[in-house]
Design goal:
heterodimer, A: 111 residues, mainly beta, 6-stranded mixed sheet, 5-stranded antiparallel sheet, 0% helix, B: 116 residues, 7-stranded mixed sheet, 4-stranded antiparallel sheet
Chain lengths: 111, 116
């Protein structure tokens, strides 16, 4: 099956700085890579996703890059704000199949 | 957008009793729903996959007789924790596949179960 690794497990940045979270996956057949933000006591919320036919996707301050050859993808958050503080999960899946989640990154943005 | 409503958000029950958690897709039909369990500061662990009108598929190590899943309609899946024990205390989250988009999955807000 798929194995998704995520680093770092914790990340602290100053407000306004950028944050980068990286994930690797093992199944070359995986073709969908979403990123979720989870606040304390709540369910995960999709913040951005990318499919295997695209190398990069951007949505305002959030971007995701995918390197299919190396089997890794990254989340980039620019101009971080305190409300970006949360746990972020990456995931990988084949279309229509179950998600395999990374272990999560706890991001703290220091005002 | 696609919304999944999960209830209750919090429940406390006594050991030995059963608890039902509901997951409803509000504005779309969910042919497939997933149930996850999440321990504090850990990732989401897939427990089972439920498909409307058929039996759920359980992940290895998950007791199907303890965690009963029913997906009787295209908008509702339920997870019943039977004969609950303190070790069943956890955060349970459902997600539904948005059939129209194929890839998109929407998560419920989760249920914090505490067994005393």
């Amino acid at each position: 099956g798929e194995n998704v690794e995520q680093h770092p497990s914790t990340l602290s940045v100053q407000e306004g700085d950028s944050a980068v979270i990286k994930c690797t996956y093992s199944d070359s057949a995986s073709n969908y890579f979403p990123w979720y933000k989870q606040e304390l006591g709540k369910g995960p919320q999709l913040i951005i996703d990318i499919r295997s036919n695209v190398g990069e996707k951007k949505d305002q301050r959030i971007a995701v890059t995918l390197n299919k050859t190396a089997k890794h993808f990254s989340l980039h958050i620019t101009e971080t704000q305190p409300e970006d503080s949360a746990v972020y999960f990456c995931a990988a899946s084949r279309t229509g199949n179950q998600f395999y989640f990374g272990t999560g990154t706890s991001l703290t943005v220091i005002p | 957008g696609a919304v999944v409503s999960q209830h209750p958000s919090r429940v406390i029950c006594k050991s030995g009793t059963s608890v039902k958690i509901e997951c409803r897709s509000l504005d779309f039909q969910a042919t497939t729903m997933f149930w996850y369990r999440q321990f504090p500061k850990q990732s989401l662990m897939l427990m089972a996959t439920s498909n409307e009108g058929s039996k759920a598929t359980y992940e290895q190590g998950v007791e199907k007789d303890k965690f009963l899943i029913n997906h009787a309609s295209l908008t509702l899946s339920t997870l019943t924790v039977t004969s609950a024990h303190p070790e069943d205390s956890s955060f349970y989250i459902c997600s539904a596949r948005v059939a129209q988009t194929g890839d998109g999955y929407t998560f419920g807000s989760g249920t914090r179960l505490t067994v005393v």
